[in-house]
């Protein structure tokens, strides 16, 4: 290995350990804060635009990852919210 390659390799390895900047935090999902939505029509509900959210419809496949900042709404065939939870 040449004389200049070792310091260059050390610099590259040190840079790979740097912390990756994160996105600014979105609105937090507070457990229980959206319980009042259960029984209401999804079409009639207005949610904060900066709150990550997903809607699960009957028979729909969803991923299993948990995101504490996300509001998950389950709806029935008629579009009525049957569950509201964080994750």
UniProtKB/TrEMBL annotation:
Keyword Signal: yes
InterPro entries given in the database record: Prot_inh_I78
Organism for this UniProt entry: Roseivivax sediminis
Signal peptide (UniProt feature, chain positions): 1-17
Keywords associated with the record: Signal
Official protein name in the record: Peptidase inhibitor I78 family protein
């Amino acid at each position: 290995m040449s004389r200049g390659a070792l310091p260059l390799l050390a610099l590259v390895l040190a840079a790979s350990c740097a912390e990756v900047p994160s996105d600014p935090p979105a609105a937090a999902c507070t457990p229980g804060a959206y319980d009042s939505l259960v029984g209401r029509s999804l079409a009639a509900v207005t949610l904060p635009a900066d709150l990550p959210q997903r809607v699960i419809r009957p028979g729909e496949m969803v991923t299993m990852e948990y995101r504490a900042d996300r509001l998950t709404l389950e709806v029935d065939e008629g579009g009525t919210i049957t569950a509201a939870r964080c994750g």
